[in-house]
Amino acid sequence: MTEPLPWPATPPAHGSVVLREFTETDASLALELGEDPYIPLIGSLPAHPTPREAEDWVLRQRSRHTEGRGFPFVITVDGIAVGTIGLWLRKLSEGIGILGYSVSPRHRRRGVATDALKAITGFARTVPGVERIELYIEPWNRGSFRAAEKAGYRREGLLPAHHEIGGVARDMLLYVSL
User: Fold this and answer.
1) Per-residue pLDDT tens for 99-155?
2) Are the C-beta atoms of residues 58 and 27 closer than 8 Å to each other?
3) Residue 12: what are its φ and ψ, rounded to 5°?
């Protein structure tokens, strides 16, 4: 565990999106995200979470910054929580920040992911030590890599069997912003 970097004084924002800290009220977002067939496979949110599991997940997200792991944000549009995005610092010693995001199914295809990526990328550029920002996206996830490309990320290559998702080693496309 490393000392956390300061939380941004001004919430990162772009277009219709504002990124904010997690609060207890985000358990309802966790319940919604947990119903998606894919989102629980890529993180610590259980599939079909109980209200208590959703609350525990929110508490874990809130603790990630104080533990020095990174910056977990809730994606909001007009004050409504529509997804999550995080800047993770496990490779900060190499100058790399890693992004991960998820948008609730009912808020997809509206440019939310692109605006959230632009907002967090602008913020990531202010974080001491971050020289390169990486995204890992499964090749089948066209919506996600389109959002990354619209946000200015470029595809750098394919990483065979790079991430374990749902107990299976999966190929990932590497997208970067320098």
Assistant:
1) 999 988 887 888 899 999 999 999 999 999 999 999 999 999 999 999 999 999 999
2) yes
3) -60, 140
Name the token pair of 116.
Answer: 């959230």
Q: What percent of the chain has pLDDT over 90?
A: 75
Copy the structure tokens of residue 149: 């490309």
Asked if residue 99 lies in contact with residue 120, where contact means CB atoms within 8 angstroms, the answer is: yes
CATH superfamily to which 13-177 belongs: Gcn5-related N-acetyltransferase (GNAT) (3.40.630.30)
Domain ranges for the chain? 13-177
pLDDT score recorded for residue 111 = 84
Cα separations in angstroms, 60 against 28, 68, 117, 141, 156? 15, 13, 22, 26, 31
CA–CA gap between residue 49 and residue 102 (Å, rounded): 16
The sign one gets for the Cα dihedral 59, 62, 64, 66 is negative
